[in-house]
Specification:
- The chain is α/β, with parallel strands linked by helices and 362 residues long.
- Helices cover 27% and strands 10% of the residues.
- It has helices at 39-44, 52-56, 79-90, 132-139, 151-155, 171-175, 197-211, 227-230, 234-237, 241-245, 273-276, 314-339, and strands at residues 8-9, 17-18, 25-31, 65-69, 97-102, 119-122, 129-131, 145-149, 188-190.
- Strand 1 and strand 2 (17-18) form a beta hairpin.
- The chain is elongated.
- It starts with 7 loop residues before the first strand and ends in a 23-residue tail after the last helix.
Amino acid sequence: MTTQSGTTEVQGEPGRAEAREGFDEITILWISEGMSCDGDTVSLTAAGQPSIEDVVLGLIPGLPKVNLVNKVLSPSLGGEHFLAPYRAAARGELEPFILVIEGSIPNQNIIEGEGYWTSFGNHPDTGEPQTLNEWIDDLAPKAWAVIAAGTCATFGGIHAMAGNPTGCMGLADYLGWDFKARSGLPVVNVPGCPIQPENFMETLVWTLQHAAGAAPPPPLDHMLRPQWLFGKTVHEGCDRAAYYEQADFARDYNSPKCQVKVGCWGPVVNCNVPKRGWMAGIGGCPNVGGICIGCTMPSFPDAFMPFMDEPPGGTLSSMVIKPYGAVVRRLRGLTNDLVNHEPKWRHNKSKLTSGYDPHWRA
C-alpha cells in the first residue's frame, strides 16, 4: 500500500512506512524545552558542512524540501502561531516529520501531577502548561524519525547526575531503548555538551537522505550513536597521542604533551572532536589545551568526576608504559639524529662519490 507521501508501508504494520520511494517534503519539529541550556541549538548555528541554512534553502542535492520549526531559528510570531505545526502533528495532520528533542527528559511521575518540571506552551483544553512529557507522548509515535540532540537528550547529562531531584533521563530511557519511529529507526542519539555542529548536521543529512529514499538507515552503535562519528576514541584522533606512547606527559595545562596526568579521559571516550575540530576544523578540547571530561558518554558526568584528577587506571597505564616509552623515545632520538644529516656525497669536490656508475658507456 502506498501513502500520500509516496512511501511504501510495511505489510501488516499500518502507519509504519519505509523510505523506499522517498519523501519530497518533510518537516523538522525541534523542541528544546527539555532540561537544557539551548546550547545545542546555538552550536548548530555554527555548522558549515553543511549549514542548517543550506538544508532549509534546498541547496543540498537529493534532499527533500525541509521545513524547520525551531524557536531560535524560526521567523514565526511565536505563541500559538509558532505551536501550530506541533499541534497539527499531534493530531496526525502533519506527515511526515522528524522530531528533534534537546534537553533531558524529567520524570513527571515522581511529583504525581503536582506542578511540572518543564513545559512547552499551554494545553489548549486546560490552559495549563503543557509538559515536555506530554508532547513526547503525543509526537514520538507519529514521527517518521526521532533524534536526540546533545548529551542531555541522549543520556540525561548534567541534569541526570546523582542526587538530582528531577529524575531526569535521556530520550531513549523515556521512550524505551526498543522504541521504533515510523521509519523503523530507533532514537538516533547525537551526544555532545553541546553537539559538535557538523556531527549533528551529518547525522541529520543522512537521515534526510534516508527519508528521500537515497540512502540506507544510518548505522548506529549499541548506544544508538552514529557509528562513523563515535566509533573511535578521543585518543585515537588526538594530536597529542604520540606523547602518551612515548610516556611523555604534561604536568600542567600549558604543555603541548599528553594530558592524561592532568585529568584527560581521552583514551577511553568515544568522540571525534580532536580529529574534526569544533568550528571550521578549528579547536576541539585537547587541541586547544583542554582535557577531555567525557561529555559524549552515557555515564557523564558522574563517572568522570572529579574533573582535573588523573583518571582511574591512568597511574597504572602510565607506569607500565614508562619503560617502553623511554626506550622508544631514545631509539627515535638516535634515528632522528641519523636522518638529520645530509648524505656525505653531497659536496662540491672534483670527485663524484654518489656511487653513480655510467655502465651504459661501456
